[in-house]
Write a structure and sequence with these properties.
This protein is mainly alpha-helical and 159 residues long. The chain contains seven helices and three strands; from the N terminus they run H-H-E-H-H-E-E-H-H-H. Helix 5 packs antiparallel against helix 7.
Length: 159
Amino acid sequence: METQPHQVEPLSALLENHFEQIAERFKLLSDPSRLRIISAICSQERNVTEICQRAGLNQANVSKHLQLLKCSGVVTCRRVGSCRYYRIIDKDLLSLCARSLTEIEQFSLSPNLRDDIHVQNSIQNHTGFFANRSRCSCLPSNRSSSAGTRSASQSCSGD
């Protein structure tokens, strides 16, 4: 008796592709240094020196992470002389960061502080920069959905 190889149904293959895209997206957020960089440029375009100062990271590390974020379609840059200015173009990612930060802040509080209005206001102010930037129309987006995200392992030309 010969066994048939297991065939994947088309819907399962489609879901698997979506799962891979979601996993790639979360990999981008899995490094605290990249989160610091995203935080540094979420409100406005900045050059590498400014990003290094705001994120507390060295230039080589920032450049490496910016290249990954650029190749993944999260940021873009423009050149002015010898400087490159980076900005966020993936507003969905900012929204995801804002929601995650808010939940982490709320769940890390003791139960008696969760209902304190001053604590809630502080959390909203602290996470507001992500949320405001994710809704800001002044940040152009060349992405209509996460389906267009390139894999972090793919090469990126024109840096």
